[in-house]
From TrEMBL:
CDD domains: RfaE_like. Pfam families: PfkB (PF00294). Keywords: Kinase, Transferase. InterPro entries: Carboh/pur_kinase_PfkB_CS (IPR002173), PfkB_dom (IPR011611), RfaE_dom_I (IPR011913), Ribokinase-like (IPR029056). Residues 14-309 form the Carbohydrate kinase PfkB domain. GO terms for cellular component: cytosol. It comes from the Bacteria. It comes from Desulfacinum infernum. This is D-glycero-beta-D-manno-heptose-7-phosphate kinase. PANTHER family: BIFUNCTIONAL PROTEIN HLDE.
Amino acid sequence: MLLQGLDRFPRCTILVVGDLMLDVFLWGDVRRISPEAPVPVVEVRRETHLLGGAANVVRNIVTLGGHARVAGIVGHDAFGAEIRELLEGARVPCSGVITVHDRPTTVKTRVIARHQQVVRVDREEVRPHDSRTTQALLRALETAAGESDAIIVSDYAKGVVSRDVMDAVRSLATRYDIPVFVDPKVTHTDFYHHVTVITPNTQEASAMSGIAVTDEASLETAGRLLLEKLQCRHVLITRGPEGMSLFEAGALPFHIPTVAQKVFDVTGAGDTVIAAMALGASAGLAMRDAAALANTAAGIVVGEVGTAAVDRGRLRAALTDGIGYRA
């Protein structure tokens, strides 16, 4: 069943709204400690630029074989132009990417040495966008929603996702009868009422529910409370090495064990989860099967260093080889 759903991914179009970023990686070696301070000196050997944040969700949708639309904001700078170029290179229309002059594009630079992250440097300006920019974003949403099978809200709390944006997303989802998937930020918990699926990690679920998740019992309490508090249909709590747990009203929790063979880097794993789950549901899979497929996809990407994306061929191979849950 999961493989049949995977085969239908090319028929699916997902609209992603959220905080677009550029991920920069500086790869090098450490051979000495700086004489200026007790810090390592990294000799940079190469540099890579990848789509990050909500743009990495878009990237995952495309590598999994689906089609993506995007609504987001970049700065009027070289990094914003690069995000556009990378999206266009992935054949993603950029008509919904709005350029603003009052803030820079969000850029996260990670220095990697010996397969480990040494430091991360963030360049960003975090505050709500003005009404003119928000209205332009809402117009972009309205244009893209009619040709989409689902909406993903990728919220990194950088200013794109607001109460007005979430109201518009819910309205469009109702109009076109399509599901809404949210990768949340704790500070915006009150924004996420009446969505289809929300995908917090364990720490986020604890903060959003007010229940410290320390064992299976507290996990279930937190999951049930979030279902009731947010009035959403499904809560998928991602649990790192313990896999994932899906909560639905009137049903027992569905626990999915991790399939990761090795974990080098969890950067972007949540982006992979929500992209794969939205594609799976849009392809006709039951939500439990879509979650299981997403779990397998995440197990692949955490085995790589950097902002990874899983392609459909690798996911097919993992499912065919019996890695992960099968329906």
